[in-house]
Design a protein that fits this description.
secreted; two-stranded antiparallel sheet; Peroxidase, domain 2; binds protoporphyrin IX containing FE; binds 2-acetamido-2-deoxy-beta-D-glucopyranose; mainly alpha; 13 helices; Peroxidase, domain 1; globular; 2 domains; about 350 residues
Length: about 350
C-alpha cells in the first residue's frame, strides 16, 4: 500500500517533472523523441533523399526555411502556416514570396512522421532536422540537433519584413543577428550556407541590389565585384531582363557544402552585397573579414563553427510552453482550425 503522504509526494514529483519537461523554461534536447518517435531522424532523411532525386536544389531550400523560420518569432514553424482570413503568412512577404521553397517536401516529411508517430514531431523540429540532414547529404558537417520545439499558432508577416536583406550593409546585418544573440562568428559562419543553392537575377541586377548596372544609384557596376565574374553574371542577367532567372550562389561547386563560399569572397566573387560586405566593407576590417579569411583557409574551422552556429540559431526563442504551442498535425494549419470551422 502506498500511504497518502507518499502518494502526495509522488504527485508533487510528477507536477515538478511535468513543469520541467513542458514548462516555459524547458530546454531543447538531443534525445527528445528517443522514446516517442525513435525513427524520426531516419524517416525525415528518407523523404529528403527521395525528394532530392528530382530536385537537386532541395537541400539548400530546406536549410533556408529553418533560417527564415527561426529569425521570425523564433523557431516555431511560423513560416509554414498558410494565409488564413485575418492572418497573412510570412511565406508571402517579400523575402519569401516566390523565393522560399520546399514546402511540399515539408508536408511529405510531416505525413511520413504522422504515419509513424502521430502528433509527436513538431513542424519547427522538422525544419531543424531537415537542415542538418541537408547539410550532411551535401558534404557538410553533422551536429547534434536539439529538439523539443512546439509549433506556434501565428505567422508574423510584418516581422518577416525585417529578415536580413541582400542589400543590407554589414552594420545592419550585425544588428539583425545580435538582436537574436548571434555573434559576428555566427553571422559569417551561417552566411556560409550560401555555398549551395540558387539565387534569382533580381538579387544582383535590380533595384537596391543592382551590382551589375546601377550600384547604389551610380549607374555603374559595383566596383568591388570581380570583373570577369561581373561579365559572366551580366550574360545571365541582362539589364531589365527576367529577374526570376536562377544562378548558383557558389558557381565553383553549386550543390556541395564546402568552404568555397569564402574562397569566392576572397577573390571578390561574392554574389550578394550582403556576402561581399563580410570581407570588403570598411566595417569588416578587424571584425568579420578575419573570420572570412579563417574559414577560407580552413574547412575544418568553418565546419566546426557552422555546426555550433546552427545550434545557436536553432535556440532562438524556442517555444516549449504547451499553453502557447502545439504539435501541428498539418504544418500549414493550426490544429482545430480547419477551413470553415470558425463559421458556425
Ligand atoms: C546573412 C544574411 C542573409 C541574407 C541577406 C540572405 C539572402 C539570401 C537571398 C537574397 C537568397 C536568394 C533568394 C532568391 O533569389 O530567391 C538566399 C538564398 C539562400 N540562402 Fe540566404 N541569406 C542570408 C543568410 C542565410 C543563412 C543564415 C542561411 C542558412 C543558414 C541561408 C541559406 C540560404 C540558402 C541555402 C539559399 C539558397 C536557397 C535555394 O536554393 O532555394 N542564408 N539568401
Ligand atoms: C506573391 O507572388 C504572387 C505571384 O507569384 C503574387 O500574385 C502575389 O500578389 C504575391 N503576394 C504578395 C503578398 O505580394
Ligand atoms: C548601413 O545601413 C544603415 C541602414 O540603411 C544606414 O543607416 C547606415 O548608415 C549604413 N552604414 C554604413 C556604414 O554604410
Ligand atoms: C538574448 O539573451 C538575453 C540575455 O540572456 C535574453 O534575455 C534574450 O531573451 C535573448 N534573446 C533571444 C532572441 O534569444
Ligand atoms: C539607378 O538607381 C537610382 C537610385 O535608385 C535611380 O534613381 C535611377 O533611376 C536608376 N537609373 C536607371 C537608369 O535605372
Ligand atoms: C523568367 O525566368 C523563369 C525562370 O527561368 C521562367 O520560369 C519564366 O518563364 C521566365 N519568364 C519570362 C517572361 O520569360
Amino acid at each position: 500500500m502506498v500511504s497518502s503522504s507518499s502518494r502526495q509526494a509522488i504527485a508533487c514529483v510528477l507536477v515538478v517533472a511535468t513543469l520541467c519537461l513542458h514548462g516555459a523554461t524547458a530546454q531543447l534536447s538531443e534525445g527528445y523523441y528517443d522514446s516517442t518517435c525513435p525513427d524520426a531522424y531516419d524517416i525525415v532523411k528518407q523523404v529528403l533523399i527521395d525528394a532530392h532525386e528530382s530536385d537537386t536544389r532541395i537541400y539548400a531550400s530546406l536549410i533556408r526555411l529553418h533560417f527564415h523560420d527561426c529569425f521570425v518569432q523564433g523557431c516555431d514553424g511560423s513560416l509554414l502556416l498558410d494565409t488564413v482570413p485575418g492572418m497573412q503568412s510570412e511565406k508571402e512577404s517579400p523575402p519569401n514570396n516566390n523565393s522560399a521553397r520546399g514546402f511540399p517536401v515539408v508536408d511529405a516529411v510531416k505525413a511520413a512522421l504522422e504515419g509513424a508517430c502521430p502528433g509527436v514531431v513538431s513542424c519547427a523540429d522538422i525544419l531543424a532536422i531537415a537542415a542538418e540532414i541537408s547539410v550532411v547529404l551535401s558534404g557538410g558537417p553533422s551536429w547534434a540537433v536539439l529538439l523539443g520545439r512546439l509549433d506556434g499558432k501565428t505567422s508574423d508577416f510584418t516581422g518577416s519584413l525585417n529578415l536580413p536583406a541582400p542589400f543590407d550593409n554589414l552594420t545592419t546585418l550585425q544588428k539583425k543577428f545580435s538582436d537574436l544573440n548571434l555573434s559576428d562568428v555566427d553571422l559569417v559562419a551561417l552566411s556560409g550556407a550560401h555555398t549551395f543553392g540558387r539565387v534569382q537575377c533580381r538579387n544582383v541586377a535590380a533595384g537596391r541590389t543592382d551590382r551589375l548596372y546601377n550600384y547604389s544609384g551610380t549607374n555603374m557596376p559595383d566596383p568591388t565585384l570581380d570583373s570577369a565574374y561581373r561579365d559572366f553574371l551580366s550574360q545571365r542577367c541582362p539589364r531589365n531582363g527576367n529577374g526570376s532567372v536562377l544562378n548558383d550562389l557558389d558557381p565553383t561547386t553549386p550543390d556541395t557544402f564546402d568552404k568555397n563560399y569564402y574562397t569566392n569572397i576572397e577573390v571578390n566573387r561574392g554574389f550578394l552585397i550582403s556576402d561581399q560586405e563580410l570581407k570588403s566593407s570598411a566595417e569588416a576590417q578587424g571584425t568579420t573579414a578575419p573570420i572570412v579569411d579563417q574559414f577560407a583557409s580552413s574547412q575544418d574551422a568553418f565546419f566546426a563553427s557552422f555546426a555550433q552556429s546552427m545550434i545557436n540559431m536553432g535556440n532562438i526563442k524556442p517555444l516549449t510552453d504547451p499553453s502557447l504551442g502545439e504539435v501541428r498535425a498539418n504544418c500549414r494549419k493550426v490544429n482545430g482550425n480547419q477551413e470553415g470551422r470558425d463559421i458556425m
